[in-house]
Amino acid sequence: MRIGLFTDTYRPSINGIVYVVDSLKCELEALGHEVYVFCPAKSIRPSKHAELLCEDDHVIRFPSFKSGLFDDFDMSVFFPPRVISQIRELDLDIVHIFTPSQVGLIGVRAAYKSDIPFVIQHCTDLYEFSANYPNVLPGVLALASIVLPTTVKLDGKDIRELIKLYRPRRGVVRWNQDIIERAITIMYSKADAVIALSRKSVNQLKSWQHDKEYAYDLTLLPNGVDALPQPSTEAVAAFRRQHGIAESDEVYGFVGRLGEEKNLPILIQALPYVLARRPRARLLFVGDFEYRKTLERMADESGYGDRVTFTGAIPREQLGVAYQTFDVFTFPSLKDTQGWVLHEAAHAGLPIVIIDREVSEVVHDGENGYYVDNQPEDLAMKVADLLGDDALRAKFGAESQRLAATFTERHQVEKLAELYAQAIERHVARDDNSW
User: DSSP letter at 100?
Assistant: First the structure.
């Protein structure tokens, strides 16, 4: 198959979608498919990063500039008719969309114009994100009322549904969420297949399908994740020295983007309760983003700043040393759609404490980790229990590795290729190519 992957975030950014796209491209090519990635250039000169990253001509970048919304989100610049013509010349068999923004939507439009089957993967919970980033209202209004109608063909009912979204709601968050729910539902209903990465996303997307005309089938298909390279003992020791982590420290914490939506303050709030039982406990944050400064201030103001460590961003291929430093991995986010780092932590043989019960297939309560309430005391109790029990950590860690091994990149990509084939086989030709 000739496959087009469309994403509004890609290297050199560091986030889950970037890892997923890279993994899919590599594994699909290993299976004999031809894969093109369409993405922002992170520069007005697309050739700049292509040279720096040694990319081939199957990574097609659009000129872009910082959006001002998020540190790692760019606005792309392109002339749609020309881009669609270029995509048509590639004779793609299927289009796979990861982000419902500019590049993702140009992929949808190209699929419509060329009558190519397209698959949408629900990677980001925009509905929940809007509570932390309420200033996105102009963007979601544009998505719903300007961009979406020029992307997929809408009928009279579709237009009426979108017009309703202009009616102000009580509170900007509620307004944002209403727009996202309806726009996403309309767009997903036009796709040949929709992929949900967790039971949480399946339940959310099903709850939005109030109208039979906008119903669509969902496939639960978590992204596959392979184990990171095993670091040497010397590398782990060097990492500890670099960040002031003593051999006697009992380490718990988080790896990933330090964003406001990740519910990370609860880890700092839990620290005094953990220290009351485990005085050598240390909280470790591995990653970076605009919310890091707020977390650093919270740590200082807690009075326990000397027991909190921030490493900054670390390239994924070097993350093995970080995971080997942890005794317990914690994942407090309530707004992720899967949690790539949960698979990495499980591969590393770590027990996991998690708040969101339906976000991952590699965490089973009481078997390789614990589900806890969104309360600092509850999280602290389970973390302290694990830090104080070597045998339990070893037992949970072994089960984590067993569960992670069932969701390898090759295994999940083989399932994805089957889904592509089914979407192509079941695709009903669209009669609006000239629209």
Answer: S
pLDDT at 434: 40
DSSP 67: -
Contact 8, 76 (CB under 8 A): yes
CA 206 to the chain's CA centroid: 20
Tokens standing for 334? 């309530």
Q: Residues 336-344: what's their mean pLDDT?
A: 95
Contact 119/95 with Cβ under 8 angstroms?
Answer: yes
φ/ψ of residue 163, rounded to 5? -60, -35
Q: Please compute the mean of the pLDDT values over residues 67-93 and round it to a whole number.
A: 80
Rounded to whole angstroms, how far apart are CA atoms 370 and 345? 14
For 2-224+410-426, CATH number out of 1.20.1250.20, 1.10.287.130, 3.40.50.2000, 3.40.1170.60 equals: 3.40.50.2000
Give the CATH architecture of domain 233-407: 3-Layer(aba) Sandwich (3.40)
Does position 314 have pLDDT exceeding 90, yes or no? yes
- The domain locations on the chain are 2-224+410-426, 233-407
Cα–Cα distance for residue pair 277/422, rounded to 1 Å:
54
Separation CA 97–CA 112 (nearest Å):
13
pTM over 0.70: yes
**What is the DSSP track for 248-286?**
T-EEEEEES---GGG-THHHHHHHHHHHHH-TTEEEEEE
Band the pLDDT of 111: cuts 50, 70, 90: very high
Domain 233-407 in the same topology as domain 2-224+410-426: yes
306-332 burial code (b ≥16 CB/10 A, e <16):
ebbbbbeebebeebbbbbbbbbbbbbb
